[in-house]
Each structure stands twice: as C-alpha cells, then as structure tokens.
Amino acid sequence: MHLITMSSSQEFVGIRPLPAGLQRKAIDELNEVPDRVSSDIAALRHWLLKQPHLCSCLTDQFLVGFLRGSKFSLEKAKHKIDRYYTLQASIPEVFNEHRLADDAQVLEIIRMGVILRIPLDEGDTGPAVTIIRAASYDTQKFKFQDIIRVGSMFGEIMMLEDDNANVSGYIEIMDMTGVTAANLFALQPQLLSKFSAFADEAMPTRQKGIHFINVPASLETGFNSLRSFFPAKIKNRVSVSSSPEAIFEHVKRDYLPKEYGGDRGTMQDIIEQMESKMLSYREYFEQSHLFGTNEKLRDDNAANINCQSYFGLDGSFRMLDID
C-alpha cells in the first residue's frame, strides 16, 4: 500500500521547537530526549514505510505527536498509529466524505459556536482547553455525529499544532446551558462510547478531564450516568456541576470570552479565528482521505487485532514487529 505525505511542500519539514516550560515538562514527564528526537522520528517513519497495510501521514510533526503521546516508547507509538487509522474505519459516522474543511455542514457548525478553542497565554504549561456548548445546535437539523465530526477535526488540528495539548493534554468543558431531554436523547450513546475509546486509545493527545457545567438540576442524575460510556480511566476525570462558576475551577477567568465572565474578546472572535484555522487545513483534510488501513494487506507479524477488540482495552496490546 503506497504511503503518501501531506504534500511535497510539507514533506517531513522538521518539528517546532517547544517553549522552554513545555520542553522541560516533555523531558521530565514524557521521556523526551531532545538530541534523540530526530532519530526517534526516523525510526518510526522507517517502520511505517515497511507496513503494507498502512497508508499514513509521515510528516515530522505528525509523528512526534505520537511519540510524545506514547512517552517515547517506539513500540507504543507504532501501535497507537496503527490503531489511529484502523479505528477510524470502524466509526464511519464520523470519518466519512463530509470530513472536509470547506464542507458546508462543517462550517455551519463552526459558525454556531458549538465548539470553542480557548487560547492560553504564552508560557502557560497547562492543558489545552475546549468548551463545547451542547445545546447550541438544532437536534432536528444536526445529528450528534455531525458535532463529533467537527470536534474530531479540531482535535486533529490540535494534535498537529498545539504544543500544550501534545505535552500536557487537554480538558473539555461541556456547557449544558439550555440542555433539554431532547439533547440527551440525541447523544447516540454507542457513538459516544466508540469515539471516547478512539480518543483515549488512538489519539496521541491525552484527555485530562471532562467537566460538565450548568447542568440543569433535573438532569444532573442523567448526566452522572454518562460516566458509564467513557473508558475506565476517563470516568475518574469526569465532573458534573449545576453551577456556572464551576468553569473557573478548571480555566483561568482571564482566558475566557466575555460571555463566560472573562475579558478576552467575545465568542464571535473565537468563532472567526476557528473558521479561519479550519479553512487553512483544506489541503490537509482533503489528503487525509487517502490515509488508512487495508486489512487484506496486513502482515501476519503485525498486530492483527479486530477493530472491536480495541473498545474497552485495559491498556495492554500485542507488540508490533520492528522489522
């Protein structure tokens, strides 16, 4: 299976130097050895080029994300990339022909402000922050899978260019303002479970917390029951609160737009920045449709694990053959 890089202008290109604080954290917590990063990337790329079943992005920044997400265990990084592409095929509701930067539905969801990426100060070494406004879309017009698709695209952009997410992980603030029973019924629990497993087991960025805020008191029990749909280690990172003040326990007030009690612009400012960012990845998402796995070509020595076995894994896996 022929492997394709993102484009001739982006081929390999090297990686961004980390800011000093995040570099120290990567060394201390992720086992990163700066002088060895280039050779680690080369070893991972060499292995990918020898896998007949895998068609993968090969750029340095993409590969170093998986190395950091695997704490620089080459075996774990190889397995995670294999899972990354394998599991996408098992979630066609999300990974399909609509996963394009200029898709009309994708842009409409961005413009509604369902997903808000919160910029951090330079020098902050904490996790990246995303706010998801769960009731800001029409459940009669959009399915939950459409929202997840756009979220997955920004998750991939975050993986490629957000150093905080790569080193320190990310948190999600789930704003339940205005949520009704109809929103809960629209959640597609099986998809939520599958995508949560994908994010936990295959994405290199690490989920550090999911915090529900502004949960209507009448629905608080229902939201607590959502824990059952998350992977085991994520359940302990889920919090549920009916208070609008709960957001300040997880995000500095100074980082937030006016609508959330901060003074850093407005939600519309963030929406416009996010639309511009998405459109700048037009070529990336077009070419990402060329990537994936062909199970008929999988080498018998590779990790030949059925897609379904990935969901609910306890962290163990079959080692992939280096040679």
Structural class: alpha/beta
* Separation of the first and last Cα atoms: 17 Å
According to DSSP, the number of beta strands is: 7
The second-level CATH architecture of the domain at 104-280 is 3-Layer(aba) Sandwich
Largest sheet: 5 strands, mixed
The CATH topology of the domain at 104-280 is: Phosphatidylinositol Transfer Protein Sec14p
What percentage of residues falls in helices of 4 or more residues?
25-40%
Which class of the domain at 104-280 in CATH terms?
Answer: Alpha Beta
Explain what the structure shows.
GO terms for molecular function: phosphatidylinositol bisphosphate binding. This is Alpha-tocopherol transfer protein. Residues 103-268 form the CRAL-TRIO domain. One of its GO terms (cellular component) is membrane. It is a single chain. The chain is an alpha/beta fold and 323 residues long. It has a domain at 104-280: Phosphatidylinositol Transfer Protein Sec14p (3-Layer(aba) Sandwich). Helices cover 40% and strands 9% of the residues. The chain has 13 helices and seven strands. It has helices spanning 20-30, 37-49, 60-69, 74-88, 104-111, 144-161, 163-168, 181-185, 189-201, 220-224, 232-235, 267-279, 282-288, and strands at residues 54-55, 115-118, 128-133, 170-175, 207-213, 238-240, 292-293. The protein has a five-stranded mixed sheet with strand order 2-3-4-5-6. It has a two-stranded antiparallel ribbon with strand order 1-7. Mean pLDDT is 87; it is low at 2-10 and 303-323.
